[in-house]
Amino acid sequence: MTLPSDSHVHTEWSWDASRGSMERTCARAVALGLPAVAFTEHVDHTVWRLDRTHVDEGAHLLSFTSPDGLVTPAPFDVAGYLDELGSCRERYPGLRILSGLELGEPHLHAEAVARVLGAGTFDRVLGSLHCLPDGDGWTEPGELVGRRPSAEIVRTYLREVAAMVAADDTFSVLAHIDYPVRSWDERVDGPFDPAPFEVEFRHALEATANAGKALEINTVLPLHPTVVRWWHEVGGDAISFGSDAHEPEALARGLREAADLAEACGYRPGRDPHDLWGRVD
Ligand SMILES: [Zn+2]
Ligand SMILES: [Zn+2]
């Protein structure tokens, strides 16, 4: 079986991808035999608090971090991005290159998001929750570790996801439903098991299915198989795959295993390689 399309990829046009490169990512996609790739750049409008010691030295965000730790992501350059996308399509005619965006908390920034969406054509639009309410502001889940119990962070995240998908009409794919698991500390809390969070997972998955959105299997971490099974049980129609690569070397990581998991849970490829996978029954 050929690899599925990598539908969640960042390049230098994302504010936090200092090692990204659209050109080199296309070259790598061709070398890997990947049929299609979607460049889903960050569009973030939430200002959040970050421990400065957690900042990546090379990240484009540095000049936007105030001394008190507030991060304001750089605005997305739609015209520059679309220009580069056009050049890459000319240089790599055998690779299907989709335009795209990863909208952070789009339900909180309807006007700003509408402006970006109106400035171009985007084939694949992902919706992401990257921050949680924290006092009178917002914070990445990882920044809350140690200040709140890990289980509470996961529960809050899933509740916010349900609220986001229900309120939104801009994106078609829910990205990384397991985002807070990236900061789950196995040494403290043991291996992550979704079972204690079944109610919250099912609620978020149901809200996503009811909104007609697809679920992404994000391969930064292997998504727990139980979550994909629940997605099928609540009636989820479609699955998307994404490496969430922020540099060319990470393109397509784990996609083979993710495709095997989707297949085992009752999903199959669409007609075209860049189509979302659909359920068979
Ligand atoms: Zn994300
Ligand atoms: Zn991403």
Nutshell version of this structure?
The protein has 281 residues and is of the alpha/beta class. The protein has helices at 22-32, 78-91, 110-117, 141-144, 150-167, 186-189, 198-210, 225-233, 255-264; strands at residues 6-9, 36-43, 48-49, 70-71, 96-104, 124-128, 132-134, 137-139, 173-174, 214-218, 238-242, 267-268, 277-279. The structure holds zinc ion (ZN) (2 copies).
- How many helix segments? 9
Sheet-strand content, in percent, reads 15-25%
Percent helix: 25-40%
Ligand identities: zinc ion
CA-to-CA gap between the ends? 21 Å
Radius of gyration: 18 Å
The total of beta strands comes to 13
Per CATH, the architecture is Alpha-Beta Barrel
Q: Write down the secondary-structure element order.
A: EHEEEHEHEEEHHEHHEHEHEE
Unreliable sequence segments: none
Describe the global form.
globular
Spatial ordering of strands, largest sheet: 1-2-5-6-9-10-11-13-12
Structural class: alpha/beta
What number is the mean pLDDT?
94
